[in-house]
């Protein structure tokens, strides 16, 4: 039996994946997480044979903004580079951080880099 943890932030998709995998006789879904932090906790606690790590939720623009933020650029500098206002840059950074479960731009870029999305 292969024991797995599934991570997906969209509840319908999470349920569909879990239901499909439950049809397989050699797979047991031992955990379902709706965010990366919960998935990591489940992996540590349940020690599954595999984890089903989520797809990249970032848009191309969010990735571009995070890359520049990761270089230490200010919102104003990022905006100039991408022809955006500083407020729009702030919004993209906020959206990206929310999608990644990060509390700030530094954590968001670190998480995106670790997941190889940047």
From TrEMBL:
Sorted UniProt keywords: DNA-binding
SUPFAM superfamilies listed in its UniProt record: C-terminal effector domain of the bipartite response regulators (SSF46894), CheY-like (SSF52172)
UniProt domain Response regulatory: residue ranges: 3-118
Matches recorded under PROSITE patterns: HTH_LUXR_2, RESPONSE_REGULATORY
Residues covered by the HTH luxR-type domain: 51-116
Transmembrane stretches, start-end: none
Coiled-coil residues: none
Lineage top rank: taxon: Bacteria
PANTHER family (alphabetical): TRANSCRIPTIONAL REGULATORY PROTEIN DESR (PTHR43214:SF42), TWO-COMPONENT RESPONSE REGULATOR (PTHR43214)
Protein name: LuxR C-terminal-related transcriptional regulator
């Amino acid at each position: 039996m292969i024991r797995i943890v599934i991570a997906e932030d969209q509840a319908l998709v999470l349920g569909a994946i879990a239901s499909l995998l439950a049809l397989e006789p050699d797979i047991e879904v031992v955990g379902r997480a709706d965010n990366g932090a919960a998935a990591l906790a489940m992996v540590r606690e349940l020690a599954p044979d595999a984890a089903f790590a989520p797809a990249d939720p970032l848009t191309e623009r969010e990735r571009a903004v995070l890359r520049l933020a990761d270089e230490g650029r200010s919102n104003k500098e990022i905006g100039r580079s991408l022809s955006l206002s500083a407020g729009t840059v702030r919004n993209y950074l906020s959206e990206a951080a929310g999608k990644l479960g990060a509390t700030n731009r530094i954590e968001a870029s670190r998480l995106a880099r670790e997941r190889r999305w940047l």
